[in-house]
Amino acid sequence: MLGKILISNRGEIAVRIIRACRELGIPAVAVYSDCDRNSSHVYMADEAVHIGLSAPLKSYLDMDRVIKVAMEVGADAIHPGYGFLAENPLFAKRCEDAGLVFIGPSPKALALVGDKLKSRQTMVQAQIPIIPGMREEGDPEKIIEESEKLGFPVLIKASAGGGGKGMRVARNRAELKDAIEAGMREAQTAFGNPSVYIEKYLTRPRHIEFQILADQHGNAVHLFERECSIQRRHQKIVEESPSVALDPELREKMGATAIKAIRASNYTNAGTVEFLVDEDRKDSFYFLEVNARVQVEHPVTELVTGIDIVKQQILIASGEKLPFTQPDISQRGHAIECRVYAEDPERSFLPSPGRIAFLKEPFGPGVRHDCGIYSGWEVPVHYDPILSKVITWGEDRETARIRMINALSEYVLLGIKTTIEFSRALLSHKNFIAGDTHTDFIEKNMSGWCSSSGNSDSVKVALIAAAIAASRDKKPAASHSVRRREAPSPWLTLGEWELFGGR
Amino acid sequence: MEFDFAIDGKSHKIKLDVKEGPFEAEVDGKRETVSATLIDSHTISLFLGNRIVTAYIAFDGDTIQVFIAGEKFHIERAQKPSFMERLREEAGPVGDKKVISTPMPGQIVKIQVKEGQIVNPNQNLFIVESMKMENQIRSTVRARIDRIHFKDGDPVDANVAIVELSLVGEEKNVQER
C-alpha cells in the first residue's frame, strides 16, 4: 500500500481525493498556488506546500516543481485528479523516472489514449466504430480541406483535449477559420499543445460513457454507463446513471465494447470510454475518446454501484487486484449530478468569479455534496469555474430528480452568479422529465432562460427582508451590541484610542 | 425607514419601522405585520401572518441578494444609478456613443478591431479569457471604433471599458428617432 500521496490538484477533486486517502489511512499532501492559500483542500490535507503563482503554468502545471515537492515531503505517489497534469504522459513518465507512482495509467497508455488521433486509429484497428473525421494531425489548411471533404457542420477538437476545451463547431466554411484559431489557442492554454483535428458533428446525439476499472493483473470491469448529454459550451452540466436510452442488450454491447477499447490500449487504473449514440439509429454508437482520469461525474457511478472509484484508483496504483469481477457489479437505483459553476446562465454562461458572501450546503436523504468552497472564499479567475457538485440518489429516476430539485432549493450560495437556479429549472423541464436528453438540450429547451422573480408574495417577502438587512447595514454594529447588553460596560464608553493605549 | 428598491427594473417602495416584537412593514402601499429574528449576519427569520420564512441575505455592491426557498432575488437600491446608466454617463452626453466593457475579470486574448474601423452587428470585437475559457465579445450595433484602451495580453478587471464606439448610419438615426 502507498505510504503518502501528494495531490497535484485543487478544488473539489483535491478534497475528494483527501477523503479517500483518509479512509485508507494514507497521509495526503496538498499543493497550492498564491490565490489558493485559503482554499479548502489546503486546510484539509495533512500537509500543504506552496508551489507558485496563481497562473496554472506557474504552479499546478509546473511539473518540475510538483515532482520536487513530492520528493521533499517524502510522498511515494502523486494523484493528479482531473485537468492540469492528469492526462499528461510526460508528467506520468517524469513521476516514474523519479521513483514516484503516478495514480493513473502508464505513460505509454496515457500517450495513446491522450492523443485523440492515435486513439482513433487504435479503435479502428480494434474494429470499434468511430465518428468520421481526420485520422492524422494537420495544419489549418489541411483541416479546411478535410472539412470540405467531410461536409459541414464539423467539430474542431483538441488533439490533447478533454473537458470541452478547444472544442468549436463550424457550421460552414466562413466559421471555420475563426473556430480553428480559437480552438488552437484554447488548446494551447489548457493543455500546452495547440494541435486540433476535426470530426463530423452529429447534431442530436446522446453522450453516453462507460466507467472502467482495470488493474495491473489483466482484470478489467465496467461500472456501467453515465448519460452526460446535457452540456453547455460542450461541457457537461448534468449527468445521470443509468441512461434512459439504453436497454439491457445495448448496455451489454456498449459495456463489452468499452472493455475492448481499454484492452486495445493496454490501459490500467480508472478511465472512461465515451460514446455518442445516434438519435436516428438508436442501436448504433460511436467511440469518441478515452478519458484517462477520474472524472467530475464519477460520483453518480459510485452511488449506483456502491464502488468508491477514487479508493480503487489508489488500490490499483498500489498493485492490488480488483476485489470484484463483472458479475459482482450491479446497478441499483438512479443517481443524478448537477455541477455548480461560477457562471451566469442568463448571460451565455459567462464566468462569474468573486467572493462567496454566504454558503449553506444542501443535505438530506440521498444527497451528496462534493465541494471545495466555503463562505467568504474568493473564487479565482485562473481556474475552471466549477465550484461543487450536488449528487442525489433514489430508488428510481423520479425520486432522484425530486431529491435534486429539493437539494438545489436548499442550496444557498450568495455573492456570485451560479448555475444552481438554472439546474433546478432544467430538472423541472418536461423534456428532462421525459428523458428526452440530447446534446442540444440546453440550446433547444433552455436558451433565453431567466431566473424567475417569483410570485408577488415571495417578491414582497424578499423586499421586506432586504429592507431589514439594509436598515441594519446603515447602523454601526456597536450600537446594537450596546442595546443588547443587560448592564452597561465601562469599556464601551472608551473608544479605540484608549483601549489600545493611545497608539 | 424608507427604501426605494428595484427588482428586474421594477421599482418598489418599502417603509419599515423596525422595533422589538411585531412591527409594520409597507410594501408598495400595502401594510403587513411582520416580526423578524436575526439568526446570523446573513440569515433573517421572518414571521408573516401564520408562516415563518427564512431569508438569506448578502450585499454585493449596489445589489442586495436575497435567497428564499430556492429563489434568488437581486434587489437594486433604486436611488443609485444602475450599471448600464453609469456606463452611459461615462460614455458622455451624446446618445450615439457606446462603451463595451469586460463582463468579468480576465485577460485580453486578442483585440480584433482597429481604431477608426467600422463594425457591424455581431462582428467580433475582442476575446477575453477568464476561468480557462475564451469569451467572444461582439458588437450589437453598426458603429465606428473610437478608442481601444487595452492591447493583447493585458489583464483586466470586471466592468472596465475596453472599446469606445460611435454609432453610424442607420443605427445612429434609429437611436436619434
Short précis:
The complex is a heterodimer of chains A (about 500) and B (about 180). In chain A, about 35% of the residues lie in helices and about 25% in strands. Chain A is of the alpha+beta class and about 500 residues long.
List the helices and strands and how they pair.
The complex is a heterodimer of chains A (503) and B (177).
Chain A: E1 5-7, H1 11-24, E2 28-33, H2 40-44, E3 47-52, H3 63-73, E4 77-79, H4 89-97, E5 101-102, H5 107-114, H6 116-125, H7 140-150, E6 154-158, E7 168-170, H8 173-191, E8 196-200, E9 206-214, E10 220-232, E11 235-241, H9 248-264, E12 269-277, E13 285-291, H10 298-305, H11 309-317, E14 334-341, E15 343-344, E16 350-351, E17 354-355, E18 358-360, E19 367-371, E20 378-379, E21 386-394, H12 397-410, E22 412-414, H13 420-428, H14 430-433, H15 441-445, H16 456-474, H17 477-484, H18 496-499
Parallel strand pairs in A: 1-2, 1-4, 2-3, 4-5
Antiparallel strand pairs in A: 6-7, 6-8, 9-10, 9-12, 10-11, 11-14, 12-13, 14-21, 15-16, 17-20, 18-22, 19-21
Helix pairs in contact in A: 4-5, 7-8, 12-13
Chain B: E1 2-7, E2 10-16, E3 23-27, E4 30-40, E5 43-48, E6 51-60, E7 63-68, E8 71-77, H1 83-90, E9 97-101, E10 106-111, E11 118-119, E12 124-130, E13 133-138, E14 143-148, E15 155-156, E16 161-167, H2 169-176
Antiparallel strand pairs in B: 1-2, 1-8, 2-3, 3-4, 4-5, 5-6, 6-7, 7-8, 9-16, 10-12, 10-15, 11-14, 12-13, 14-16
